[in-house]
Amino acid sequence: QVQLVESGGGLVQPGGSLRLSCAASGTIFSITALAWYRQAPGKQREMVATMTSAGRANYADFVKGRFTISRENAKNTVYLQMNSLKFEDTAAYYCNIIVPRPGTLDEYWGQGTQVTVSS
Asked: CA-to-CA distance for 25 and 2, rounded, in angstroms?
């Protein structure tokens, strides 16, 4: 069983920066895709950023130019660098990975880390 542990959330002022980390444990031979999602109170969970196994990244329009998804394979960790934070970025952020198995795919989620942007 794969477990994802998130860290790096907190309280930050508008215009500030945070870097979220998601460390994976367990046996992972390869990853089909990884992503960050977020969910604010009263809203649906929404995709923030994705990355394929080849390293190709994609971003939601509302974070383009401000957020960057990256990975560090040696530490089995995925990051989300968040710059120029806005009030509307306040949400619980979740990392997600998709792991291939013979004939199927498994999906894993982190526990969530809270990001609060407030002046």
From this structure: 6
Nearest by Cα to 50 from 39, 37, 62, 61: 37
Intra-chain end-to-end CA distance of the chain, in Å? 40
Residues in the chain: 119
**How would DSSP label each residue in 32-94?**
SEEEEEEE-TTS--EEEEEEETT--EEE-GGGTTTEEEEEEGGGTEEEEEE-S--GGG-EEEE
Helix (H, G, I), strand (E, B) or coil at 15: coil
Per residue in 4-54, pLDDT (tens digit) is: 999 999 999 999 999 999 999 987 778 889 999 999 999 999 999 999 988
Cα–Cα distance for residue pair 115/87, rounded to 1 Å: 10
Write the pLDDT tens digit of every residue in 65-116: 999 999 987 788 999 999 999 999 999 999 999 998 889 999 999 999 999 9
Strand partners, 19: 81
Q: How far apart are CA 14 and CA 85, in angstroms?
A: 5
